[in-house]
């Protein structure tokens, strides 16, 4: 998994340096410079209503457009940014840029959400709610449009203070998603009470070629039901083929995201997904849309 690749990434990033510490300092310095030079870009992956196929939102995913090494995935630099404190300014840039793009797409008027990943380091900052509010005001978008994605581990580090922070954020009107659900610890007790709006089921729960018995499907179904029991919007991540999509439809999972539906795309390409938004009539009565 990308999140555990941090150390290797540092080693391979400047292979030949020999010294891991030197390589890491190199990477930190380059990250700092990259932020100044505007080398970070956001790609956007569509999220789709399973029943109607309509576009329901986008997730913003950061990439580093390195002048020498080309496009670098977040799993390779986010851990270093977190350890070095750079995640603060980087995370704020991501937030502002995603809100700006949401505005450009008139996402709030169209009823689309813009999802933004939030690092535990950002989330634990005292002024995070203020930064979120400033990004919303600067972009001029309605708070309901913004979905902040957190992982279970972010919340579990200190459930009481995390709950306070979540309440502060929701008081602004923004929404909260629990990302990669099912991969952390003690997920079930957490899910019962924390104030969130969306549950993103980790892609590891979608059946793969090795899942020959029914247990994979049972687990997926159970997670969808758990989310729905709490009246959360449930999103299945990692939808990679028509079988996944059919399974989700059959289970009544409302929302899907994955390479089969759309890859993460640069903004100008992701714009091309906008016509896939539901027409107002179809939104009110999705079964009519399905029949067409
Ligand atoms: P995530 O938030 O769970 O994002 C989903 C990841 O799964 C993305 O990888 C996406 O490209 C990938 N993905 C989407 N559909 C499929 C699929 O059908 N199959 C497979 N195998 N993968 C799929 P990406 O962009 O490399 O991001 C990895 C992780 O890095 C994200 O996981 C998130 O935790 C983190 N990340 C990305 N952008 C940001 C950011 O702006 N801030 C922070 N703090 N973390 C970020
Ligand atoms: Mg995410
Ligand atoms: Mg995820
Ligand atoms: Mg993930």
TrEMBL record:
Keywords: Coiled coil. Residues 24-278 form the EAL domain. This is Putative diguanylate cyclase/phosphodiesterase. It comes from Deinococcus deserti (strain DSM 17065 / CIP 109153 / LMG 22923 / VCD115). The lineage of its organism: Bacteria, Thermotogati, Deinococcota, Deinococci, Deinococcales. The chain holds residues 530 to 821 of 822 of the full protein.
